[in-house]
Amino acid sequence: MAGFRSLARQVRDPGCDVALRRYSLRKCLERFAPYGHRATWDHLCRRHRFGPEDRDLDPARLVAALDELEEARAVWLAYERRFAERRRHEKHLGLRRPPALDDWHRHTWGGNGVVRCVDPAVHPGLPLGEALRRLVSALEAQPGGSCPVCGADRFAWRPVAADAQGCGPVCTECGVVVPAPVLTDGALRAARGRTARADGLRARAVRELAAVG
């Protein structure tokens, strides 16, 4: 199975057919897709102005999309190196049990879906590298009350689903699932409470419709 760098070389290879270069870029997202595969692809298509199913497009746009993806990947890999070094140091000191943030990180090793978007069509408008830099800054700081990517302060709680990375506090502005450990307890309670109220209103509406019927 080809790795990310091998696929990236194919994307840049002018001797390859454009359809193959597009396919190779899409395969890169199986190795690194910070918003999740579908949302990251949608993001790259919009920012670099080519259609999701376009087989005949300007190769320069594919390369520009790859450049953006590689920049974001470099940001995340640098964080993972710092993370691994810190864990080695903590283990040396006898701190064997990882904190909650490290438990979250264990499910995102490699950066695939690290800022997952529940709706593939709703994602931050920022370049991927900037979104990852903002997330990394939040991961290395104290918990806050706002989305580390866009700065909004309203969240909805998405309950546990088949995809464990797709559950938790979802920013209602940019659509990312925010790592719970980067938010304060107050922000998490507000997200759960807001979702519970919305569920209650939906249940009430269903009961009223049933009564009318």
Count of discrete structural domains? 1
What shape does the CA trace take? globular
Strand content: under 5%
Helix content: 40-55%
**What is the averaged pLDDT score?**
84
- Main sheet specs: 2 strands, antiparallel
Structural class: mainly alpha
Report strand order across the widest sheet: 1-2
**So how many helices?**
7
Element order: H for helix, E for strand = HHHHHHEEH
Number of strands: 2
Residue ranges: pLDDT <50 for 5 or more in a row? 196-213
- Taking the alpha carbons of the first and last residues, their distance comes to 57 Å
What report would you give on this structure?
The chain has 213 residues and is mainly α. 53% of the residues lie in helices and 4% in strands. It has one domain (4-212). The chain has helices spanning 4-12, 18-28, 37-48, 59-92, 100-106, 128-139, 185-212; strands at 155-158, 168-171. Strands 1-2 form a two-stranded antiparallel ribbon. Helix 3 crosses helix 4 (59-92). The longest helix has 34 residues, at 59-92. The protein is globular, with a radius of gyration of 20 Å. The termini are far apart.
